[in-house]
Each structure stands twice: as structure tokens, then as C-alpha cells.
Amino acid sequence: MIASPISAHSEFDRELTETRARSAGMRVASFIVAGQRFWLKQVEHHESWRKRHTKGDSHQAFGREQDALRKMAVLGVPVPEIVAHGPDWIVLTDCGPTLEDMIRNEDYDHAEGLPAFEAAGQALAALHSAGLTHGRGKMKDFCWDGTQIRFIDLETDPAPFCPGTTGRDELVNFVYHCHFVAFQTGRDLSAELRAFVRAYGQGGHAEVFSAARAWARRRWWLGWLMAPVGWLTPDRRSPDFKAASPTLVWLAYYLNA
Q1: What's the pLDDT score for residue 2?
Q2: Span 74-81, mean pLDDT?
Q3: Is the pLDDT of residue 60 over 50?
Q4: In sequence order, which residues have a C-beta less than 8 Å from that of residue 249 and are 6 or more positions away?
Q5: In sequence order, which ranges of the chain are alpha helices (DSSP H)?
Q6: What is the per-residue pLDDT for 25?
Q7: Sign of CA pseudo-dihedral 202, 204, 208, 211
Q8: Cα-Cα-Cα-Cα dihedral of 154, 157, 159, 161, to 10°?
Q9: How far is residue 210's CA from residue 42's CA, in Å, rounded to a whole number?
Q10: Fold of 9-93
Q11: pLDDT value of position 207
Q12: Average pLDDT over residues 139-167
């Protein structure tokens, strides 16, 4: 039984049925009803042993995501609305592109991107101030509709916020992912990263900054190791390694509370 607030139920149901039929085996697909985009998200089927080992049981992860979305919504955290659901699928409202999608768009405009990164920093700070975490905190977990940031992909059961562990880890993840995508796209994202960190810092989380700085400085040797490895590694894998050194340097010496 579909639980949906959409007035045009018949059109919504028809589009949903057709989308599910043509997207069998796909993790995510979208469809439009009355000018509004919706996202169908289905249980991910891991074909390789490596993915099954690293990501765990996909049905459990899917259930955790639904529970997290409902919990976050009740607590007032900005997340997509679940407008329909089934045993192995959900339909979510559209929240705009992710920060990563914005960067990867060939028409990306830095002037338009900066407000999104600033809003993302404010949103993560507010989430942490509420004693909550996302569970990952990469650029692809933040959606921007032009006015508001919303969190997506809550597949990892978020742990409570702690400045020296979970808070630090999410800040590290975001900084690393910025450098990773910068290497992949050839874009300079230093202004975006500064906007994010400045906005996050204004939320009063100096302890997170201190923990991230200490974490990075203890790993100075890893930066020296990863720098040559990154340039000697095939391009397909090199962004992983190339992003490590600037991430450590940035966190250790350019992170200001």
C-alpha cells in the first residue's frame, strides 16, 4: 500500500510502477509527476564479494536508512521526505543536486557554489550541535536546492556526536572528499572548502577543529608517503592517494577555528 500525500495519486502510481519496471536492478532512478521530481531508491544488490564485505547486508542498510530518515525528520533535521515505500524501495522528494554533482557539472559557477558550501557548513554544525551525526559527511551527502541543504544517504547508523571522534571524522571526510573531487575534475575548490569550514566553525565547534588538527599532525608521515604514491599510481586510482597529502596539510595547518 502506497502512503503518499500527492494529490494526483493515479499519475503518481502509474509513473512509479513504470519507473520500477524499467529500473530493475538499479539503485536509484527518478521520475516526474506534475512538474515535481521524485527519486526511487531500491535495495542495492552487491555483485562482488568485496562490496558485500565492505558494505554489509544491503537490506539491513536500507532499513537503517529509512529509520534514520524518519528519526531525523522528527528531530527537525533537513532530510528528504519519504512519500511512498515498499519492502525493498522508497520514494523520496527531490532536494536538488548534491554538492558533488554541482562540482562535476561542466557549467559549474563558483559564485553560485559558494553559498551552497557555506550552507552545508552551517547545516553540519547545526546537526552536531543537536548531538547528532550523519555517519559519513562527504560532499555527495549534502543536497542543495538553492535555499536549503538537506542530508541524504543515511545508510550508516549514525553514532552520537562527539567532538574528538565522530565530529572530527565527518570534518575529515568532507575535507578529503573535496580534495578527491578536485583532483578528479581539475577544479580549484579551495574557496568552497574555506566557505564550508568557516561556516562550520561559526557553529561553535572549536573542539572538532582541535581534534582534526591533532589527528592530521600525528599522520604527517602518511602525507610524505602518499605524495609519490599518488603520482605513480594509474589515473583511475590516483585521486584516492593524491588527495591524502593536501588533506593532511590542510587540516594540520590551515584549519582555523
Answers
A1: 46
A2: 93
A3: yes
A4: 216, 223
A5: 9-22, 49-55, 58-74, 99-104, 110-129, 168-185, 190-201, 206-217, 220-232, 238-242, 244-253
A6: 81
A7: positive
A8: 10
A9: 39
A10: Phosphorylase Kinase; domain 1 (3.30.200)
A11: 96
A12: 91
pLDDT average, residue stretch 212-232: 75
User: Domain residue spans in the chain?
Assistant: 9-93, 99-253
| Beta carbons within 8 Å of 14's beta carbon, 6+ residues apart | none
**Close Cβ partners of 21 (under 8 Å, ≥ 6 residues apart):** none
Provide the grid cell at 38.
521524485
At residue 91, what is the residue type?
V
Average confidence (pLDDT) over 118-132 = 96
Residue in the structure block whose three cell numbers are 554489509: 56
Which top CATH class is 99-253? mainly alpha
- For residue 3, what pLDDT band results from cuts at 50, 70 and 90? very low
Report the distance separating Cα 243 and Cα 229, nearest Å. Answer: 11
Grid look-up 554544525 returns: 125
- Is it the case that residue 11 has pLDDT exceeding 70? yes
Q: What CA–CA distance (Å, rounded) separates 137 from 134?
A: 6
